[in-house]
Design goal:
about 240 residues; alpha+beta; Conserved hypothetical protein from pyrococcus furiosus pfu- 392566-001, ParB domain; Conserved hypothetical protein from pyrococcus furiosus pfu- 392566-001, domain 2; 7 helices; globular
Length: about 240
């Protein structure tokens, strides 16, 4: 199985200053995730970790809250291999200007049928729109705006419930994730993808509230952008097991 494909550009990592952060070991059961994981990505990372024999990338968590900001799939992969603790970097979050919250935009690179017919098959209530208007992205009634070559539709429901329907109906390995709505729309217009799902960006408060409540968002809902980069590590897997 392939890893999740993500596209788009931020500043190259080499343009960001390297900050050597303090690494702490935290029990996996004490961490609060905020996103669902994708099974194929977890399996890919399990194989990768077994081949390497060590854990290579620390998990980014909110200080004092143990809310995971980055590394959900690595956590699950290590847990399924028998890991009970995991290397983490603790950072302040809400007022930290060095961390910006954005989102990913799913694009589907497989074949799809005509819309809105397939929405009816999925039993998704939809509303056609003539143009993409930012006011719809702030309406909590609609989780996504679906953009296809033959039109665009507001999709009623939560992002999590809607996206799970798409993952069940379509081939999950044909979904890729891009960083900007313009990139997503262009991928449809140039024929690379069949459709894209556009959505608003959450707030940091949304992330904390959801995680500590035990709920999770759909996969790849959040994208945390740092003004700095932090070090990789090399912790033998045996040190993370019982």
């Amino acid at each position: 199985m392939r890893a999740i494909q993500s596209h788009g550009k931020d500043h190259p990592p080499s343009d960001k200053p390297l900050i050597k952060c303090r690494i702490v070991l935290i029990d996996i059961e004490e961490l609060h995730g905020h996103e669902q994981v994708v099974e194929s990505q977890v399996n890919y990372l399990k194989t990768n970790l077994q081949q390497l024999g060590y854990f290579f990338r620390p998990i980014l968590v909110v200080k004092k809250h143990n809310v995971v900001l980055d590394g959900h799939h690595r956590i699950q992969a290590l847990k399924e291999l028998g890991g009970v603790r995991i290397p983490c970097i603790e950072i302040p979050y809400l007022k930290n200007e060095d961390i910006r919250l954005a989102t990913w935009f799913p694009i589907y690179t497989g074949q799809s049928g005509k819309f809105p017919g397939e929405l009816n098959t999925l039993k998704i209530e939809s509303r056609p729109v003539i143009s993409l208007d930012s006011k719809f992205f702030s309406n909590p009634e609609y989780g996504f705006t679906l953009f296809a070559k033959n039109g665009q539709w507001l999709l009623k429901g939560s992002q999590k419930s809607l996206y799970n329907l798409f993952l069940e109906y379509y081939d999950p390995e044909k979904f890729e994730y891009v960083k900007t709505p313009s990139y997503a729309i262009n991928s449809v217009n140039n024929g690379y993808s069949s459709f894209t799902l556009l959505r608003k960006t959450l707030t940091k408060q949304d992330v904390l509230k959801t995680a500590v409540s035990g709920k999770v968002f759909a996969p790849k809902t959040t994208r945390h952008i740092l003004t700095f980069r932090y070090q990789d590590i090399k912790v033998p897997l045996e040190n993370l097991f019982n």
